[in-house]
Give the backbone structure.
Amino acid sequence: MPPTHTPQTIRIGLLAGEPIRLEGLTMVFEEPPTPGKTQLVPVIGTIQELLANPAVEYLVVDLNSSGGGFDTVEAVRRSRPGMRQIVIGPENEDELILNSIIAGARAYLDSSAPPEIVRQAIEIVVSGSIWAPRRLLSKLIDRLLNVPDTNVPTEPLSLTVRERQVLELILTARSNREIAQELGIEERTVKAHVGRLMRKAGAENRIELSMRALAGALPPEPAAKVKES
């Protein structure tokens, strides 16, 4: 008889000041458990209780009802730098979204996101990637690499155009095959780009590459002037 695999249990803190918002967030976890799949368990409490609970490694923060707003995101980063945050807030607030992710959030969803989308975002974050509007990923990488967001020529970027495109898709948890299809290139070419990105970041795997990129840890070496493949 093959050995049984005990699925991992991950506890997700829920921070929302309004009971109706908190009730809506708990609906995210009503999906029946899937055998062998990571189980997501909600933990409700005050920000002090959740930060003090070592079993809570992820935190859903509702900016609309958490009381402290964006300050809550920064407070969590200072108190628990390793805690990954999923932020829910106003839509189309690009600066707020960028600042939230730079301040430690690993996902940003607008307040109207249905439970299944919130759960999908949580699962993406648990996998080591981020969830954010695609239109903002390039700006996000620019800021994390301390590269001015301007069309005026400046110092060379540390990444080639294609490497930046591949990194953006890695951050959204795309596989090599999906990246190849998205960019219209061969899968082996994607693997080569991923390998170069990991060497530049000093990362041993894709998750570590994502985390180092989000922390702005890619070294500022000039991009090679080569034809993109």
